[in-house]
């Protein structure tokens, strides 16, 4: 069936805003400006403040939800159905996971390239699959286990590409290794978030935009308050600000004042995550969760290509191999091979649990990003 103009618009919006989300965060990291008190010019390394901005973007999804609800009431539309009452605190544990995982990924983005960051996020498949078996009593299909193994191989190849690539003074080898490991650690937390949402949240039939908005509210409020103690917690060489603290929000604001383009990058990050979540949810509804996964994979290509074009990283052939293997792992885990097999053999029928297989990853959001 041919796509309508609206469906093409949603797919394009998801691809563009998803790419902008990662690229704008990396763009902000590349800026140098003086901080407060006449400090010397230094890189804008404020991952926790950037995470606060990301949650602000998610929080804005609540506004989109209520606008859709008002429109549905006026038009007697059933797109936003009346939902059962629920306790908003159900979203607190997933929000805490989202906050921790997102913060770790923003820290890692300061240490590694944007393309590796996006590729390594594919590790979430491994931990989501294992946790769904352990805590949700799911039974993975053989193709899903093969997808998990392929993802592991792809991660190893991408890691080797990072080790063998040329590194500049901004991204030393030790920092790249640390950043890659932090990204993988963050995917464990993201997988826990997905399992918690599946077990406790989805059964209440909460609209996805509302769920994203509530988690964004919790993440924004909690992390904003945590910026105060972070201002006094020493972090040594792990910190990127002159005072050597875990996070120096005042230094960030001074840098933004001296280099307005940083504000533009932060605004791009905040707005893109809001539109990306809206577009992702709409693509799942109008098209399918499978289409959403394909578009999410395509944005990795866009990020990689633009990073190379902008000179943010150097090309290494192993990245192509690693991305291809990761793509195959994602396709196998999410059942994207089923349509191909169906075309080759009309007598083949997909297994009955496909709807469950797509729920955990296909119909979920990424935290830089997706988060996301």
UniProtKB/TrEMBL annotation:
Chief localisation class: membrane
Location(s) in or outside the cell: Membrane; Mitochondrion
GO molecular function, one term: transmembrane transporter activity
One Gene Ontology cellular component: membrane
Keyword terms, alphabetized: Membrane, Mitochondrion, Signal, Transmembrane, Transmembrane helix, Transport
Residue intervals passing through the bilayer: 48-68, 89-109, 115-136, 145-164, 176-196, 208-233, 261-281
Cleavable signal peptide: 1-18
InterPro entries per record: EmrE-like (IPR037185), SLC35_F1/F2/F6 (IPR009262), UCP036436 (IPR012404)
GO BP terms: negative regulation of mitochondrial outer membrane permeabilization involved in apoptotic signaling pathway; positive regulation of cell population proliferation
Membrane topology: Multi-pass membrane protein
Keyword Mitochondrion: yes
Subunit structure: Interacts with SLC25A5.
Role of this protein: May play a role as a nucleotide-sugar transporter.
Family, per entry: Belongs to the SLC35F solute transporter family.
Protein name: Solute carrier family 35 member F6
Species of provenance: Phodopus roborovskii (Roborovski's desert hamster)
